[in-house]
């Protein structure tokens, strides 16, 4: 639960709103924040792995 609260707080400080052009992070530190690697572009295709006990090396390892 604490990790969820930390992530929401971080994202709310990094993202700008319609009323302000700069984010709170940028207003405080004077530099643009770097987005975390966890965030993905909306609509990006993801691959879900399919785990079998015996799996060939050259076949697809997951489904999109």
Account of the 3D structure:
The chain has 64 residues and is mainly alpha-helical. It has a two-stranded antiparallel ribbon. The mean pLDDT is 81. 30% of the residues lie in helices and 6% in strands. The radius of gyration is 19 Å and the shape is elongated. The chain has one domain.
Helix content: 25-40%
Query: What's the structural domain tally?
Result: 1
Average pLDDT score: 81
Tell me the Rg in angstroms: 19 Å
Which percent range describes the beta-strand content?
Answer: 5-15%
Strand order of the largest sheet: 1-2
User: What series of H and E elements makes up the topology?
Assistant: HHEE
Anisotropy-based shape: elongated
User: Number of helical segments?
Assistant: 2
- Oligomeric organization of the protein chains: single chain
Count of DSSP E strands? 2
Category by helix and strand content:
mainly alpha
The first-to-last residue Cα distance is: 29 Å
Summarize the structure.
By secondary structure, this protein is mainly alpha-helical.
Spell out the blueprint of helices and strands:
Blueprint: H1 2-14, H2 24-29, E1 48-49, E2 62-63
Antiparallel strand pairs: 1-2
Question: Which features characterize this protein?
Answer:
mainly alpha; two-stranded antiparallel ribbon
């Amino acid at each position: 639960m604490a990790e969820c609260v930390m992530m929401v707080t971080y994202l709310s400080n990094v993202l700008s709103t319609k009323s302000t052009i700069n984010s709170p992070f940028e207003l405080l530190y004077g530099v643009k924040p770097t987005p975390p690697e966890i965030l993905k572009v909306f609509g990006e295709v993801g691959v879900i792995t399919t785990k079998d006990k015996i799996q060939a090396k050259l076949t697809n390892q997951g489904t999109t």
